[in-house]
Design goal:
Layout lengths: L1 H12 L7 E3 L2 E3 H6 L14 E2 L4 E3 L7 H16 L5 E4 L17 H15 L5 E6 L4 H4 L7 E4 L7 H14 L5 E4 L7 H13 L2 E3 L22 H16 L1 H4 L11 E2 L4 E8 L2 E8 L18 E9 L4 E8 L8 E2 L2 E4 L2 E9 L2 E8 L5
Parallel strand pairs: 1-5, 5-6, 6-7, 7-8, 8-9
Antiparallel strand pairs: 2-4, 3-4, 10-13, 11-12, 12-18, 13-17, 14-15, 14-18, 16-17
Length: 365
């Protein structure tokens, strides 16, 4: 165990939280076969294997043998090692099942109940749960997780899908933070940058860069990939933009989806009310040709000198434009018109991600 303690200490020295990984319903094949009374069964009353019986799927219903056993194991691990919380996983499948008596198992409720039990057992330790394929997001957003953690998979393959997944999780959870796992190869830099831009624009972040600056491109984390210098720099610029203008566009600044922003087809927009005014993220998702994050595609064609407008009654003092697509992240003042309660600006260029910062006379909104 000393090697594990050393790794935890190293993580803490770098300002990181260290959490043990557990699958809520996966047992070793030996344990699974020894405890059929704890297992999950399919509609034919057959045991449910995972990975050609590498693991067996158990019934996680609250108060049952497996749930009680797993909570005891959590208590034992956190009592022995200085971990900071629990990272709980599931596999997205199965989504239905039965106990040994043939009674249906409500898996979404079982997941939520286990999270609550883990939080009650370890009240000062954050608990995370992976919503694989965005399921069962309705239950998980109501559970006491530290933040929403979502792993996106097909058939949700468009960037618009990614945006809606982030927005929906924030809506359902009362604007709780969203972290997205999205596995895109390092040799698809445009896909990575567009996905990140959409996620950031909607108030989420992505788990993507790990040791030695390598990209998390596969669900098996050790299969990370080296990034090209240009992709690494692009991710760095986007992250710095998010931090530099955090008062305008960070996840702590909630999106206001009620505000309708008019922009050309293919320009994705996200509006936020900020203390100093408002911000609008603009992401180039290209008109006419649908772009999918899981398919290789070229950079979208640039938009040039296009109009963005919205109803905006408060007096505007200034409008700045910043972008993650060039070396300088400085916000540049641009011309705007405000007449009859409508604000209009002309954006000179959009490659991937631009942000408009709208400063009003009223400083607190």
């Amino acid at each position: 165990l000393q090697a594990v303690r050393d790794l935890i200490a190293a993580a803490h020295r770098h300002g990181m939280k260290a959490m043990p990984y557990l699958a809520i319903y996966a047992a070793s094949a030996k344990f699974w076969h020894a405890h059929p009374e704890m297992a999950l069964y399919d509609e034919k009353h057959q045991l449910v294997p995972f990975g050609e019986e590498f693991l067996g799927i158990m019934d996680p219903t609250a108060g049952t043998g497996w749930s009680t056993h797993l909570l005891a194991e959590c208590r034992r691990v956190l009592g022995t090692l200085p971990f900071d919380g629990l990272h709980i996983d599931q596999y997205g499948e199965p989504q239905t099942g039965f106990n040994q008596e043939g009674e249906p198992v409500d898996l979404p409720r079982a997941f939520s109940d286990f999270i609550q039990a883990a939080v009650d057992q370890h009240p000062r330790r954050p608990v995370l749960f992976n919503a694989v394929k965005n399921w069962p997001i309705d239950s998980l957003t109501k559970a006491p997780v530290a933040f929403n953690y979502i792993e996106i998979w097909p058939p949700k393959i468009t960037y618009w899908d990614v945006a809606e997944i982030v927005r929906n999780a924030r809506r359902l959870s009362g604007q709780k933070s969203v972290v997205i796992a999205l596995y895109i190869p390092a040799n698809r830099p445009i896909n990575n940058l567009l996905a990140d831009a959409v996620i950031h624009a909607c108030g989420g972040t992505r788990i993507e860069v790990g040791e030695n600056g390598r990209l998390l491109s596969d669900p098996y984390f050790p299969k990370h990939e080296a990034m090209s210098p240009s992709l690494g720099e692009g991710i760095r610029r986007q992250t710095e933009l998010l931090m530099r203008y955090s008062d305008w566009i960070s996840p702590q600044v909630s999106e206001n989806e009620a505000v309708q922003v008019t922009a050309p087809a293919g320009v994705f927009t996200a509006y936020r009310d900020a203390k100093a005014g408002a911000s609008i993220s603009l992401v180039n998702l290209q008109a006419g040709v649908p772009l999918n994050w899981n398919e290789d595609h070229a950079a979208p064609e640039k938009f040039k000198d296009f109009e963005v407008s919205l109803a905006f009654s408060e007096p505007v003092e200034n409008v700045w434009l910043t972008t993650a697509d060039q070396d300088s992240l400085a916000a540049v003042s641009i011309h705007f018109m405000q007449t009859e309660g409508r604000l209009t600006v002309i954006v000179p260029e959009l490659k991937i991600w631009d942000v408009l910062l709208i400063k009003t006379s009223t400083q607190v909104r």
